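User: For a benchmark we're assembling, each entry needs the component sequences followed by a predicted structure for the full assembly. Here are entry 17's components. Please fill in the structure.
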Amino acid sequence: MSKSNGTATTQGALPHVEEDGRIVFPPQVEDVALKGAWDPQDILARLQGKSAATIDLGALKSVDGATLALLLHIENSLLSRQISVHRENIPDGLAPILAQFPPGRYREEDAEDAHPVSILEQLGRATSGMLTDLKDQVAFIGELTWYLVAAMKNPRKLRWRDALRTAETAGVDALPIVVLIGFLIGLIMAFQAAIPMRQFGTEIFVANLVALSMLRELGPLMTAIVLAGRSGSAFAAELGTMKVNEEIAALNTMGLEPVRFLVVPRVIAAVFMVPFLTVFAMLAGLLGGLVVFLSMGLPTVVYINQVTDQIVLMDPVGGLIKAMVFGLLVAGVGCLRGLQTRTGASAVGESTTRSVVSAIVLIAVTDGIFAVLFYCLGI
Amino acid sequence: MTEREPIIKVRNFTAAYGGNVVIDDISFDVHRGEIFVILGGSGCGKSTLLKHMIGLYPAAAGSIEIEGDDIVTAQGDHRRRILRRFGVMYQLGALFGSMTLRENIRVPLEEYTDLPGEAMDLVAQMKLDLVGLKDFAHHMPSEISGGMQKRAAIARAMALDPGILFLDEPSAGLDPITSAELDQLIIRLSRSLNITFVIVTHELPSIYTIADRVIMLDKRVKKIVAEGHPAELRDNSDNPWVRQFFLREAPEAEAKAP
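Assistant: Structure for entry 17:
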């Protein structure tokens, strides 16, 4: 099918109905005309009340996908109105290809495709998918717990080299971004709080606010979110690619459990590295607060006194405990999504996205649980 | 093939995905030391059968005994003992991309043996030498060609000196010369180490060169439709589809222009 590139006319480029009721195809169907021809109402109107139609293909010089589709579409439209169809004058050179697509082809398939999936069925499928995912998560948590305990009992069996490599990529390499974000969070929070607090002469308490927020909440939270975006996704992509490349299958047939071999070193590395990163995030946040404090003309020693007066030991300790749990969740869910990767080019990307979304949801929910727990325990 | 002792016994085996039966109630033996090839058209379940034989998928019915132990029902340590008896080369090699070839071969050694590191390195070097990759021990999988990756995968599969090697499409994606080299390697390993090979492949030249015996699966009946030496099947099979397969002929209806 040739493009008319604006010079060719569309006259004679469409099938039309002759006086005697024959549908005649032109030598070549122009694709600019095809859009108009796709709705064959004119042809159907001309053949109203007839029981048979003849399609004259004698003029056809060549057929391409669109011409064949148009022919089948016209024929199927006629057949669905109980008008039988007969092709005539089929050029010799086009006979083989036209024979492969006889009138009425794909009518049944179209009818099957037309069955809509009911809302109930969609709901059922979605529920079944969620339950399967939940079952996978429970099984994964059980298996991971089992192998973590086994690794603690027999540390020699742990793949330390993998754990150290992960500690470097997920921990040391993440330090600049964690420090930068911690610093900016402290700075922004202090700045936003200082303006209204100054009106009441309470800007000195900016230090208390920054210290409490960074040590109890934002330090671990921001570190965990950075870990989810940076390392959880990397775990999912790495394990997902291994799954697609059959490396996970290879491990299975060597009798090596992927959870023990791949997940445990990553989880251990994350659990140990996140508290360190969190400490840096906390300190950077306090530093950010100090910058605002100094810009208000208040001395450093006051800032330090305010912070040390406000903070009790359990504030940073609680924050670090939370950070360890966040590390466990982020690394665990990242690896789980990687191991759940299906086949296909988009599968690894999907797993990566799912790992980040799941991790952030888990972090938020767990943070809420910790808030209630700490309140009940009076921490 | 020197002996007729069955090393793998598949009995009344059925494979299904969900409710869709792919292979229906088949039985066959693989004999010790032979090169056994699983053949069939696309989608007939060759790779599915192989993946069931290596215990990756649970069978819908039947048993697959490897040296007398059923891998279908085995659990825990029993299953690990069965898995040690064979090695697998996957279609894409499935080498661990973050490790050198030597480290790849060390993985099963580290998990299953108490050899000192130096001894493991030596074993890994020897296995690489066996497949002609002596000088590539420190290369990453991404630094070598597809054919070399497959040879390295065979070396890794042989790390624990298994009696059986399963190869999934070893010649797929390789040029004819590399493919022929791989065939010669398989024959050499089979003859010199008396390793039993179970191979899934489509490549007819390879099949004629290496196979001691083949089975053919047909997706229309979901069963084995032929068993024997490829040349015999090509010349003497009663089944026209089997002859067409070996002669690379399209079925009549499709071969002729309509």
